[in-house]
Amino acid sequence: MELTPLRYFRAIVAAGHMTRAARTLGITQPALSAVVKKLEAEVGARLLNRTGLGVEPTEAGRILLRHAEEAIRSADTAVKAVRELLGLEHGSIRIGGGATATTSILPQAVSATRARHPGLRFFVREAGSAQVAFAVATGELDLGIVTLPVPRPMADDLVILPLVRDELRLITPASHPLRVAEPPARNPPDSSARPRPRGSPRAASTTPGGSARSFRWSQLSGEAFVAFEAGSAVRSIIDEAARTAGVTLNVVMELRSIESIKRMVAAGIGVGLVSRFALSPDEGLTASDGTLIRQLGVVRHKDRAPSPAVRAFESVLLGLHA
Length: 322
What we know:
9 helices; single chain; D-Maltodextrin-Binding Protein, domain 2
């Protein structure tokens, strides 16, 4: 039995009148009557009784209507499931994030998602956390990865899901005193040795092998500093930590890209602080007198239902950092 006649029959019962139902369905009243006659012939029973006000279902009509409702709901569910599958196969996702997200977090998540759904397309925008959160709130982006907390009142429009804690670590040129720690002395110090010039950096704390693993904020006083651009969330965290430690950073360059900061530091321009996700496990120095920790989160609009593609990607992203 086709579903269209059942939908028409349901509309007739709901309207209680053949002409009104025909008008609602956009067909002629004779055509609708013909559909009812065909249904009655198929089930072998009269389905409608005429009344002074219109029509009403017979007992057989009520039984048919009950099963018709179940069949229509099942068919609608099936169509929705197929459309969701097509959304996963041919959908698109608009994502925003800062330098850490676009450089070190999104590539793995996008790769894992495309391995499951190779037809998905991704549009990635790199911007500061405030701009990303605003773009999600206004519907320009589906998802964002931002530094938490999101300021109010913008946060009121967003679903905010904690993603991962990130540490900012100090990177230095290869020959910098903070990176090349002094080897442990084998003999008592020579009293005739030349004293360390005043103001020169003291070596950072080291592992037994002599490689530096941490630094103190006071050691950055006067150091040329390659920084993220002013106004970004990560720069605000760094500036606040420096102020708390009583240190004024000597910023000689501002950049947005993590890779650019790493290259400038490697070229000897100065030292810098970048996410641990952009470094190998044994790379970078931790602040021993106040680690730089920030919480990254995923944001999406709370009043817009995410598409199947967005839901799938969000699940992968959160799962990778569970």
